[in-house]
Amino acid sequence: MKALVTGATGFVGAAVARALVRTGVSVRVLARPEADLRNLDGLPVEQVAGDLRDPTSLRAALKDCRHLYHVAAHYALWAKDPSIFYDINVAGTRNLLEAARAVGVERTVYCSTIGAIGLPPEGGLGTEETPVSLEQMAGHYKRSKYLAEQEVHKLAKEGLPVVIVNPSAPVGEGDIKPTPTGQVIVDFMRGRMPAYIETGMNIIDVDDVATGHLLAMEKGRQGERYILGSKNLLLREVFDILSTLTGIKAPALKLPRGAVLPLAYLNHWFANVTGIPPRIPLEGVKMAKYKMHYDCSKAIRELGLPQHPPEIALGKAVQWFKSHGYA
Fold first, then answer.
1. CA-CA-CA-CA torsion for 35, 38, 42, 48, nearest 10 degrees?
2. What number of CA atoms fall less than 13 Å from residue 259's CA on the CB side?
3. What CATH number corresponds to the domain at position 218?
């Protein structure tokens, strides 16, 4: 049985490809010609060149594949030209799933994001059913992923066999272009975290996220979404774990979000003028307003999603970043 994985050069996609290889699946990966292939080193996969914006390349990549894991996305908190989020995350997803339907792929798992799931306005845990709208999406990445999910839901209603997974904040090995969460870990390890804005996140081991993709392929209900998450933590708690793992003192100074927001706007303006990514991402500061805490019980109950402790996941991330020269 052959499966195509998009985004396999990235953090989550590479973990999915590794998990598939371990189970004996024949894996084909779609990669742009200029992609960084370090995450595929030593992995026995077939590489094909293609681009989500090129439907012809997608049909060729999907030939003879029974399953599709669509993990690729433009994942960032800033871009000089925001249209790239919509070209890749929305139009690219539609191109790929329409190609999958055309060539007869039996089943697809689409990787969305926790950011496309709502949070109760009165506080509490978000679930797969929490109402949310485009207007509530902060930033182009979240907006584009929300719109991409709408495309997936529409195709599912038309009969496309697809399951949606929404990872929370994965951490672990292979974060070669550090995700926003990975960058927090790197900055902490470099001693570049003198202060912080309190917020909340849900941490999960990236290998558990990968297993969740495979379980969704096997057990997920068509058209359903599943939160792939584990433990809800405050950022201060994450720093305490990192301090224990590294011996580096956790920052003690907690800043009010309102004090940092003007600096973030200024940094955002400067980034748009110079093209240099902001050190204080505006969307990150805006998102810090919310405690991104979620109820992950549906994926645990229906899929059997594993729940390794965040201390293990963060420990793997720390060791990987250290051994690869990030800190």
1. 0
2. 8
3. 3.40.50.720
Interval 69-95: pLDDT, tens: 999 998 877 667 789 999 999 999 999
Mean pLDDT of 43-49: 95
Could you tell me if residue 270 is inside a domain? no
Q: How many structural domains comprise the chain?
A: 1
Specify the amino acid at residue 5: V
Domain that holds residue 221: 2-171+205-229
The string of DSSP letters for 148-202 reads HHHHHHHHHHTT--EEEEEE-EEESS--SS--HHHHHHHHHHTT--SEE---EEE
Residues in CB range of 225: below 8 A, 6 or more apart: 112, 117, 128, 149, 163, 164, 165, 166
Q: Is residue 313 part of a domain?
A: no
- Alpha carbon distances (Å) from 214 to 108, 220, 249, 303, 309: 10, 9, 38, 9, 20
- Contact between residue 138 and residue 287 where contact means Cβ atoms under 8 Å apart: yes
pLDDT in tens, 282-323: 565 556 556 789 999 999 999 999 999 999 999 999 999 999
Closest CA to 35 of 167, 145, 177, 181: 177
- Does residue 185 lie in a domain region? no
Number of C-alpha atoms within 13 angstroms, CB side, residue 53?
10
CA distance linking residue 55 with residue 301, whole number of Å: 37
Q: Does the pTM of the predicted model rise above 0.85?
A: yes
Let me know: does 13 contact 207? Beta carbons within 8 Å.
no
Rounded-to-10 torsion of CA 310, 117, 213, 203? -10
DSSP 81: S
Q: Do 252 and 191 form a contact (C-beta atoms < 8 A)?
A: no
Torsion of CA 274, 275, 276, 281, to 10 degrees: 110
Residue 300 maps to a domain: no
Which residues sit opposite 171 in a β-bridge?
205
